[in-house]
Write a structure and sequence with these properties.
The chain is α/β, with parallel strands linked by helices. It has helices at about 15-25, 65-75, 90-95, 100-110, 150-170, 245, and strands at about 30-35, 55, 60, 85, 120-125, 130-140, 175-180, 185-190, 195-200, 205-210, 225-230, 255-260, 265-274. The chain has a five-stranded mixed β-sheet with strand order 5-6-7-11-8, covered by helices on one side. A two-stranded parallel ribbon has the order 1-4. It has a two-stranded antiparallel sheet with strand order 2-3. It binds zinc ion.
């Protein structure tokens, strides 16, 4: 999961709760939260929405940064034992003048490790302690993925490829699963096992790249799994204009991404939209 943007009236709280419940009910499910825990827009920021602290439906949204982090910690409390790690995003950094609220409030209250803005998660077998696979996750503070191609097939391919490129550039050669937040754009790039030809001295034979060894020190770029995470920040709500609406960005999917892992092997990945 990434980008719940707590404290924003554009945050899709029902969706966040829905994903939290799904994680909670999955017997072996685990979660990582990759930044922008809180929206944290100060009153003097041009993107601040006047009246944001007002009632939203039957829920009062508080603008106090401390309240926002505490509220988010409360929201994730039911799955605290399933959260492997939480990271900070650019929105969290905005309110770090006097301290790190992701580390000292969100992670501290949930009793979970703090991953800063980029980190590796090493998954070991619970019984044997043997390495299963590694995850790399980060929340960049700038940049975007996007395409203006008229064909949606090309847009999807371009954005997925851009996301993969950004992750490859991080150079984390031993991580089977690599995820990036910030773009609020859910994309999945599975491994690509290409065809190649070899000969045995007499005949030419077809071969395919073998699937990755998840424990290898270097996993070839095209044999890893990559994903960019959606967020929970709605573009429009009735009666108030948020910064996504004002910037004129396109509407985005809301939800999280799942990876299904069996004995260190990722069998498939999908989006859970809310
Ligand atoms: Zn975000």
């Amino acid at each position: 999961m990434a980008c719940p943007h707590g404290g924003s009236i554009h945050a899709h709280y029902d969706g966040i709760k829905e994903n939290i419940e799904q994680i909670g009910s999955g017997k072996n499910s685990r979660a990582i939260i990759v930044g922008d825990i809180v929206d944290g827009m100060p009153h003097d920021d041009p993107r601040y929405i006047p009246g944001e602290q007002e009632v939203d439906g039957d829920r009062k949204v508080e603008k106090s940064i401390l309240r926002c982090y505490n509220d988010m910690a409360k929201m994730f409390m039911p799955i605290r034992n399933k959260i492997l790690c939480a990271f900070a995003g650019n929105h969290d950094y905005r309110s770090m003048k006097w301290g790190d609220c992701v580390k000292d409030i969100f992670c501290e209250r949930l009793g979970i490790p703090y991953g800063t803005t980029a980190g590796k998660i090493i998954v070991n077998d619970e019984k044997t302690g043997k390495l299963q696979y590694k995850i790399f996750a980060y929340h960049p503070f700038t940049g975007s993925i996007g395409s203006t191609h008229s064909d949606p097939i090309m847009r999807e391919a371009t954005e997925t490829s851009q996301m993969k490129r950004k992750l490859v550039q991080q150079g984390m050669g031993d991580c089977l699963l690599q995820v990036v937040a910030h773009f609020h754009n859910g994309k999945i790039a599975p491994p690509f096992q290409g065809l190649y030809l070899v000969d045995d001295g007499t005949n030419i034979k077809q071969k395919y790249h073998k699937e990755a060894d998840p424990r290898a020190q270097y996993i070839p770029e095209n044999l890893r799994w990559y994903a960019s995470l959606p967020g929970y920040q709605k573009k429009h709500i009735m009666g108030k204009s948020g910064y996504v609406e004002r910037a004129g960005y396109g509407p985005v999917e809301l939800g999280c991404i799942r990876a299904f892992v069996v004995a260190g092997k990722i069998t498939h990945m999908d989006k859970v939209l809310v």
